[in-house]
Amino acid sequence: MSQRPAIPNPPYHGGCLCGAVRYRLDSRPLAINACHCLDCRKLTGASNLLMVVADRASFHQEKGAVDSWRKTAESGRQIDIIRCKTCGTRLWHEPLANPALVFIAAGTLDNSDWAVPASHIWVEKARPGTHFQPDALKVTGQPATREMLMDAFAAIYGA
Description:
By secondary structure, this protein is mainly β. It has helices spanning about 40-45, 145-155, and strands spanning about 10-15, 20-25, 30-35, 50-55, 60-65, 65-70, 80-85, 90-95, 100-105, 120, 135-140. It is globular, with a radius of gyration of 15 Å.
């Protein structure tokens, strides 16, 4: 198993680049996943989108105005991408197929040093030279269910 930083206890706080939007997560993550699909790469301007998957009931937008944009992924699943109305920072997305979950863009957390992916999806689209932790689950394409991402997280970090 690779060396990973400990996940701090909640709450976790985050927000957008301009500070207009703030949010809080009051429960531990259910998964930490990196998506390497071309859509996520383009939407972030990075080599992947690192997401903290969490219980929607524990997630609270504390302030600020947001905009929502509905995206249909290559897998056919739809998500509502939530951005700051002022600066446009992508903050989180909400999967229509599972409204009990929220996918927080890890880079918007005030401290994301602990957010190391336990799983990677669309690995066949990963940029050359991408590092995968030896103990992380690597999935070709979109997994049939998100439970496998949560199972991978639980296997590494415990329940």
